[in-house]
Amino acid sequence: MTRRALLFGSGALALTLIAGCERGRFDAEPTESLPIGGRDETLLSFFDGTTLSRGRLDQIASDPESFTARLTGTYRNARLKLREAFRFSDGQPLQIWDLSADRKGTISGTVSTQAEDGVMSQAFPVSGWATQDRLVLDYDGIAPGGGATRLHFHHSMTRQGDGTVENRVTISKFYHPLATSTVTFFKPK
Fold first, then answer.
1. What is the pTM of this model?
2. How far is CA 45 from CA 2, 8, 79, 104, 107, in A?
3. Average model confidence (pLDDT) for the chain?
């Protein structure tokens, strides 16, 4: 199965639910107010300026696929506007993010994704939460370079000791996991 096959939809796959489909306590919203304030208020600020990434997409019944991306972001007043240009073996789709954090670290915003035909999708709503070292995002949208099938994306990002940010993504449809991706974000030298 190619990435395009997954992205056109794999709803016909007979998969069983796994425990990881529900958000566990690790990804649950913090139960107490977060001390947010200052330029580095949440992990959103990491994406200010130029950021690079490398990642791997693992799909059910398919070989893993590696990819890279170049991200250009502007972070001002707890709002991130981000352009993410992917590089897959079969194309270079874009994703445009517009995310804001309130003083409690609650994230809201939108994401628009370039489909296989080159047309940008509508802006899909994104929700989540953030601290200085964690960022969790959930949304229903289309995959970069994919078809029109709407999938669910769950991003769980954590700042690492070496200055990078690790992102673990679960892609699902009707609560059935279809793929996972592990992405490392880093600043160019």
1. 0.81
2. 34, 33, 9, 15, 13
3. 83
